[in-house]
Write a structure and sequence with these properties.
heterodimer, A: 271 residues, alpha/beta, Rossmann fold, 2 domains, 5-stranded parallel sheet, 5 strands, 52% helix, elongated, B: 316 residues, Serine Threonine Protein Phosphatase 5, Tetratricopeptide repeat, 0% strand, binds adenosine-5'-diphosphate, binds magnesium ion
Chain lengths: 271, 316
């Protein structure tokens, strides 16, 4: 059996982070530009923050993908929580140095201070999920930035600890912070349609009228991850009806009932 | 898995629930308009008592106009007799006053009804199902011999330590070839292989082909666990629970289903796996109790079916 358009559309909304799936959203692309600009400025650490599911990881992946063609850039998708392991990884990535034994902060700091960058652009380390690093670790990362021999872009989402970190570090001048937000209704519409069109699902893309997008926005608050979950389950239901009860999906726009059913299924509606 | 029928019924109920506030609002507007109408009459009546003679004419016109809207029968009668006697007005005033009072009494009662029903329902909705701790303690103390518990803890610790180098490798590869990122097969350090073989050979050491297959499965699962640790997406932990259940690793299945329920306590499949794992761990009573709780909260037909099967001994 050939995969149905609903199946293809469903798989568009798998919750994965892959720079190749990145979609240019207007607001996001202006943030993206300012982020790229601040990377070129000296002495700045860059903080990218926002609620879970607002696209921070996606953003970092995309940034990383574009940067590596012109400069040294490394993306650490999951935090390396062991300190020695963290510095060893940095030493390996930045200077191609292998350490078999422990490498502590003081030792690594010496290495960093003694290297000359020459003509090269400052290498960049992108840290995702940085709320998981300890406060002392963040302090050490800041000290590393102070050497101007390496630069960090840090993505984190709000936790209680974040407030604390915010007070102690992010208010100082060396930080440039950029906030990511949930999508507005119009952005959400673009997001859904572009995503489907990228996968050649034009027919389903056209089924998302302003009305259906409004309802989806109401249910997901414009959160990208929740939207993915909702639409994945929505097309799952469509697939089911296509096989068993095609009358239910006759309409030319996305059925409100099925949107609500998916919201129940994914727990966005308590019923 | 998708249980469309169950979803459809839940959706129907959801729609009905949505209607409740509308019904309540229209009922209360009705009551309010009715009572306003009577208040108009009431003010007017009290004036009659103070100055009966002077305002007779205006009284007539208002009394007539009110019945046109509300048309209560006693007032209609009264309107006809109006021109006859002022004395009859007195009795009419009494007539009008009595219904108005009763309405005034009814009104707060109705409002209370409206207020209480939705809040009670909200309270019901907020019921959070979280298995009690003693219940977990029970399982720990009763099922596995202490050695195994230690082992699994050590395993868990090992795994946590190992996540670090594995992740690093992945990151490095990404930076070289971001496009193939998702296809990169992470080379497993030798310690992991040993560790993986252990539970599998315990489960069935007769079938060596099976072991290989399970190793692949375990790789898949590890990958998903890694992702789950990053984004705490309950869909991922549910996936892990289901896979462990399929592999016969019921304790792990139980743990991940529990984790899933903690993140989102509204995922039917997770409760099903949770209960099934309990049965497999010889905790039938716990499974029944859990399912009953969940059913009372969700009306899930799948859960009901499973409960029946467990109680009839069809599911062991
Ligand atoms: N600009 C974008 N283009 C395409 N998909 C996106 C974009 N932003 C977010 N997403 C989708 O939303 C999901 C959640 O985004 P993610 O980056 O993981 O959020 P966060 O890291 O802030 O929790 C991702 O799986 C991705 O599919
Ligand atoms: Mg993320």
């Amino acid at each position: 059996m050939k995969p149905s358009i609903y199946e293809n559309s469903r798989d568009v909304f798998l919750d994965t982070v892959n720079a190749n799936d990145y979609i240019q959203l207007e607001r996001v692309s202006s943030i993206y530009q300012s982020l790229k600009n601040s990377i070129e400025k000296p002495l700045k650490m860059i903080l990218l923050y926002g609620k879970p599911g607002t696209g921070k990881s996606m953003f970092l992946s995309k940034l990383h993908q574009t940067l590596i063609s012109t400069q040294k850039a490394y993306l650490y998708k999951t935090p390396i929580l062991d300190e020695s392991e963290f510095f060893k990884t940095l030493a390996q990535d930045l200077y191609n140095m292998k350490y078999d034994s422990e490498l502590n902060f003081t030792q690594f700091m010496k290495v960093v201070e003694n290297t000359e960058l020459g003509e090269m652009a400052t290498p960049l380390i992108l840290l995702d999920e940085a709320q998981l690093y300890s406060t002392t670790m963040m302090e050490k990362i800041r000290l590393l930035s102070d050497t101007r021999k390496v630069k960090f872009v840090i993505a984190l989402h709000k936790t209680e600890k974040e407030d604390l970190i915010a007070k102690e570090h992010f208010q100082t001048r060396i930080w440039e912070s950029i906030k990511l937000d949930n999508a507005s209704t119009s952005e959400l519409k673009i997001y859904i349609q572009k995503k489907l069109m990228k996968a050649n699902c034009l027919d389903t893309a056209n089924m998302f009228t302003q009305k259906s997008v409004n309802l989806i926005h109401k249910l997901t608050n414009g959160n990208y991850r929740n939207t993915n979950k909702l639409l994945y389950s929505l097309f799952d239901i469509y697939m089911h009806y296509e096989e068993n009860n095609p009358i239910k999906i006759k309409g030319s726009e996305i059925s409100t009932t099925i949107i609500e059913m998916s919201a129940i299924h994914t727990g966005l509606i308590n019923a | 898995m998708l249980d469309i029928y169950d979803l459809e019924t839940r959706h129907k109920k959801y729609k009905q629930k949505l209607l409740i506030p509308y019904i309540a609002i229209s009922a209360s507007t009705l009551v309010v308009t009715a009572s306003i109408a009577f208040f108009v009459l009431y003010d007017f009546d009290s004036k009659i008592e103070h100055q009966p003679q002077q305002q007779l004419i205006t009284q007539e016109s208002t009394v007539k106009s009110v019945p046109q809207i509300e048309k209560p029968t006693p007032q209609n009668d009264m309107a006809k007799k109006d021109d006859v006697l002022a004395a009859s007005q007195d009795s009419a005033a009494k007539n009008i006053a009595t219904p108005q009072q009763t309405v005034a009494k009814q009104e707060p009662a109705v409002k209370e009804d409206i207020k209480t029903t939705p809040t009670e329902e909200k309270a019901e909705e907020k019921v959070v199902l979280s298995p009690s701790l003693n219940f977990i303690n029970n399982i720990k103390s009763q099922t596995p011999p202490p050695k195994e518990v230690k082992k699994s803890i050590q395993e868990a610790q090992k795994k946590q330590e190992e996540v670090v180098p594995v992740v690093v490798q992945e990151v490095k590869k990404t930076s070289v070839q971001p496009q193939n990122k998702r296809e990169v097969v992470v080379p497993a350090p030798p310690t992991i292989v040993e560790e993986r073989l252990e539970p599998v050979s315990k489960a069935d050491n007769k079938n060596s082909i099976d072991i290989k297959r399970k190793n692949n499965d375990e790789d898949d699962i590890k990958d998903v666990i890694k992702r789950f640790n990053v984004n705490h997406n309950p869909a991922l932990s549910l996936f892990v629970a289901k896979r462990y259940y399929q592999l016969g690793e019921y304790e792990k299945a139980y743990n991940y289903a529990l984790t899933t329920n903690e993140i989102n306590n509204n995922m039917e499949e997770s409760w099903i796996i949770f209960s099934k794992s309990l049965v497999k761990m010889n905790k039938k009573d716990m499974a029944v109790e859990t399912l009953k709780k969940y059913i009372s909260h969700s009306q899930s037909s799948q859960a009901k079916q499973l409960l029946d099967e467990i109680q009839l001994g069809k599911f062991k």
